[in-house]
Write a structure and sequence with these properties.
single chain, alpha+beta, six-stranded antiparallel beta sheet, disordered N terminus, binds zinc ion
């Protein structure tokens, strides 16, 4: 049963819209526009001022919600918590409002006419799903700022007008009407366009007939050789990614990057024709920046367009768990690795090392099924498996690629699976199901059953059968079965030395108190000057007993600290992914196919 307020019904009919599910007593809105105010004054308070204006045909209440999450960031963030000083007006007069729940407001128009709801949004969260302001700059996601009518449909068009300093710039994927006015065809599009406002660097280039823009903050942070390097990497990574789906469904793609020394590590979030990345400055010119960039751009196909039906359409009010996140995230990660090696950005050896790192990562955590790890994304489990669907899903992609190539004598590959689903589901305006995924895999593999594969390695927790699968692609794991001293840190090297970008919880360095952002000065008696310190550290401590204490000297924001680590080792699982010299001619073709994207016949 529906209860549509009487004054609204004729307008719905006139607009030719089907009946809509509207909360009891609530009414539809029309002529939606948003005003976004960010200038030197609001920047001082780290606030973005937002106004939403719409017309109503009657006097019934309007319910407006803010999203609980930003698609792609599979966590509930409840952006409503950042709302301050909300008000509602009609014809210049304040009107009544109250809250319907913690992220929903109910506004009570006094009759037909134009209503405006305004608030200030606290932009102080340096996170890719959030909003963050500096004295000369802000970025935000539409999910942070833009109300949607609760229970109504999201197909309404809207206008966004920016109010900012005359010499500040705007970079956004929204459709431009002028330098300050933009439109979105529906709410999904409106909140899928992260936006920069303020002072930043912006340039663009053409790749295969499409425009690619690069916006970086702060000004000057990515200039000269660093900028040229990323542009060169993007130029090289695009053709191999374009070849997978054989369709480039955008005219313009924008890469938005923030570099900030307060940010430990690197993080990026995908959108349909843009992505937002936040990095520690040590990522400048690192191949890891290129890997993450490729991952996010490939997402514009895989998850933003080709998407599990559990996520179609996005529901902004609730968590949307899916057993298929390993496809959306893990296989995207596999294609990022492939884009770099196929584009000549990294060597095959780098690809093997990246793959080996993923094998080690999976071996280092409790056995977990890909489908279960996918579902758990929303709660970040604390047993070590959080996020394992990236590396483990990527390796599943490699295995499926090898099995499809082997079954088809290298005439087909994982690319055919992706392309079939893209055409069969996304181009028909819907998500894909698990059955459709495996049907596409079977089809590409000439009818071979993947039931056991699914039961053991996707729904099950069996260790991956590398000794059986890798030789099919002329590869093997060479056992390096020695004890290896491990600090449990991920580091990056820049012109000033070695900086910690991630610390493994419970690892030797983590227990000693090392934090992301610390610069390593020395480890034991090993002076840390470049990436060679790891090998020197392992060499120096290889014969000492576990638990031996050693000094870790770090520079933390200019202060020198001496921390005490206890020696830890990983043992027996160590291996190295190498090319198999004894590989058959067919296995060599498959290996070459993976590295270049080629298929035979
Ligand atoms: Zn991703």
């Amino acid at each position: 049963m529906k209860n549509i307020s009487r004054a609204v019904t004729p307008i719905l009919l006139a607009a030719g819209l089907p009946g809509l599910a509207i909360p009891l007593g609530a009414q539809m809105i029309d002529d939606v526009r948003y005003d976004v105010v960010f200038n030197a004054e609001t920047a001082q308070r780290r606030e973005i001022h937002v106004e939403m204006t719409f017309t109503v045909a009657g006097g019934g209440p309007v319910t407006l919600s803010l999203p609980a999450w930003t698609p792609g960031a599979y966590e509930l963030d409840d952006f409503a918590r950042n709302v301050r000083s909300l008000w509602a007006r009609q014809d210049g007069a304040e009107i009544r409002w109250d809250m319907a729940d913690f992220d929903t407001w109910r506004v009570y128009p006094t009759g037909p006419g134009e209503v405006t709801v305004g608030f200030d949004y606290l932009a102080d969260d340096l996170d890719t799903s959030a909003a963050w302001a500096r004295p000369d700059f802000t970025y935000f996601n539409g999910t942070n700022l833009f109300f949607f009518p609760e229970g109504g449909d999201l197909s309404f068009e809207s206008l966004v007008t920016f109010h900012t300093e005359p010499d500040w710039k705007i970079a956004t994927g929204l459709q431009a009407l002028s330098s300050l006015e933009y439109t979105a065809a529906d709410y999904h599009e409106l909140v899928d366009k992260p936006t920069f406002v303020g002072r930043f660097d912006l340039d663009s280039t053409q790749i295969d007939g499409k425009t690619y823009r690069l916006a970086t903050y702060p000004e000057g942070v990515m200039a000269g050789a660093d900028r040229a390097t990323l542009w060169d990497q993007i130029q090289r990574m695009m053709p191999p990614m374009e070849a997978v789906m054989d369709d480039v469904p955008w005219d313009e793609y924008t890469t938005l990057l923030v570099f900030d020394p307060e940010f430990g590590g690197g993080s990026a979030l995908e959108h349909s024709d843009s992505h937002l990345g936040i990095y520690h400055p040590s990522f400048l010119s690192s191949p890891v920046l290129a890997l993450i960039t490729a991952h996010e751009i490939f997402h514009a196909w895989n998850v933003k367009r080709l998407r599990p039906s559990d996520l179609w359409p996005y529901d902004y009010g609730r968590a949307m768990p899916t057993e298929l996140l390993w496809i959306s995230e893990g296989i995207t990660d596999y294609y990022a690795d492939l884009a770099l090696v196929r584009g000549g950005i990294v060597s095959p050896d780098y690809f093997y090392q990246t793959t080996q790192d993923k094998i080690d990562e999976v071996r280092g955590v409790p056995p977990v099924a890909l489908e279960d790890a996918s579902l758990s994304a929303w709660i970040n489990p604390r047993d070590g498996t959080s996020g394992i669907y990236y590396s483990k899903g990527s390796l599943a992609g490699l295995m499926i690629d090898i099995l499809v190539r082997d079954a088809s004598d290298n005439r087909r590959s994982l690319d055919d699976v992706m392309k079939a689903l893209y055409q069969g589901a996304y181009l028909r305006d819907r998500g894909f199901t698990e059955d459709e995924w495996w049907a596409a895999v079977r089809e590409a593999a000439g009818g071979a059953s993947f039931q056991d594969f699914h039961d053991s390695f996707v729904d099950g927790r069996e260790p991956y059968p590398w000794d059986e699968i890798l030789p099919l692609a002329g590869l093997r794991l060479q056992a390096d079965g020695e004890r290896v001293a491990r600090m449990g840190v991920m580091t990056n090297i820049d012109s000033d030395g070695v900086v910690v970008v991630d610390v493994q919880p419970g690892g030797s360095a983590g227990m000693a108190g090392v934090r992301a952002g610390d610069r390593l000065v020395s480890v034991g008696e090993v002076a840390v000057e470049d990436g060679g310190f790891g090998a020197a550290f392992r060499e120096m401590f290889s014969d000492r007993p576990a638990g031996t204490t050693y000094d870790i000297v770090v520079d933390r924001a200019g202060e020198r600290l001496t921390l005490t680590g206890k020696l830890e080792f990983t043992e027996t699982t160590a291996s190295r992914l190498v090319e198999d010299d004894a590989a058959s001619e067919k296995a060599r073709r498959i290996r070459n196919g993976i590295l270049t994207g080629a298929v035979d016949g």
